[in-house]
Design a protein that fits this description.
Elements lengths: L2 E5 L3 H12 L3 E5 L3 H8 L10 H10 L3 E4 L2 H5 L4 E4 L14 H13 L4 E5 L7 H12 L6 E5 L9 H6 L4 E5 L2 H11 L6 E4 L1 H32 L3 H9 L20 H14 L5 H25 L6 E5 L14 H11 L3 E5 L4 H7 L4 E2 L3 H5 L4 E4 L4 H4 L3 H7 L4 E4 L6 H6 L3 E3 L8
Parallel strand pairs: 1-2, 1-4, 2-3, 4-5, 5-6, 7-8, 9-10, 9-12, 10-11, 12-13, 13-14
Antiparallel strand pairs: 6-7
Bound molecules: uridine-5'-diphosphate-xylopyranose (UDX).
Amino acid sequence: MKSICVIGAGYVGLVTGTCFADLGNDVVILDIDAAKVERLKNGLMPIYEPGLEELVRRNATSGRLSFTASYEEALAEAEFVFIAVDTPSGMEGEADLKSVRAAASAIAAVMDHPLIIVNKSTVPIGTGDWVADIINRHRHDGVDFWVVSNPEFLREGSAVHDFLNPDRVVLGSLNREAAEKVAQLYLPLRAPIIVTDLRTAEMIKYASNAFLASRISFINEIAAICERLGADVKEVAAGMGYDRRIGPAFLDAGLGFGGSCFPKDVRALAHMAAIHGCHPQLLRAVLEINADQRRSVVQKLRDLLGGLDERTVGLLGLAFKPNTDDMREAPALELVHLLQHEGARVRAYDPVAMDNARRVLPDIVCCPDAYAVAEGADALIVATEWNEFKHLDLARIRDAMRHPIFVDGRNIYDPERMAALGFTYRGVGRGYGT
Ligand code: UDX
């Protein structure tokens, strides 16, 4: 059993801390937002993540997991401190390190015994050295510390599962012994553990996310070509996926990637590359294609309806992907913006993201279900591929609409079936007539 402090009770910090507690460690999760800490103490989750609430309750009840807003309290017993704070995009696409700096300074000011400081946040290459430098300057004399980079690879919606079943654990440090000590924490997970230097570990995270984002933009570019040349991108992707060198994952064409990681990380890597004299043309193209995906869906609708002014468009799904209530950089945000800009009225429903959506999209009509969205709509767009949309009574949807026009931004329906039901149906990259 080890004593661990996790700084930041967001997706990454909360999942990491809770899972480490579940593995039998003593964990204190710190957040500077005292109200959030109070809610967590009362068992109220700040985010929707399957399985997390139950895991928090179980470990809090057993006394292995606690929450605090005080650095003194959080660090009192800690051997390891995980920094899991936000690193949002700055003005130029760079990662904003304000929260990392604040956490590093606060740790240095309070620590009075040796600590291993582990960076989990996605941070620009070189940040580990920078954190070490901040702590060096602010610490009390003679208190030793070591910095380790340990990037997270958690997907929202399956973060608990991903933490407990990682494909690999990446650890980077200038001090092998410190990295080995962090490796011990992960031994129960029986995953491959890669120990390398700080900068390489930091780069593994960016390169992994940029590669996955590139796959999505690649298949979206192929989808655009399929559309013009009469091929079906879903079948193309399936056919490609059988090649073991390619594999089937991350080849779903559609509205493109969103969320709190991919867009921000690709922008940050491109920014880092550019300021160091590289020309990140591929990364820039990945972002450009992604932005085009939203525009092309709106264009399909504009063509089908002969203009969008005063049209009523219904959105099925708002979250950036299924099984999350997260609206950060969700394609639906841009869709709504583009549609409203052209004078359309937007109605929408999402199974769990409605509360978050109301805050960021105050001018849409929020509906209680998909059938209510269809009521009087001139067209529908699938923006998020929630399972419940795959099992809708489509005849009922059709009958509720003013015009049976369906633009499927996630390719969840069969074009032939939709045509047979009387819809004018368009998917993404699904040849002529779809
Ligand atoms: C991602 C990474 O997977 C994770 O390792 C990292 O640490 C954080 O970022 P997440 O943002 O939760 O996780 O989402 P993910 O499930 O990876 O999907 C990202 C986006 O890509 C979603 O908007 C999704 O709709 C889109 N996507 C994914 C596609 O458009 N096509 C695909 O084939 C796969």
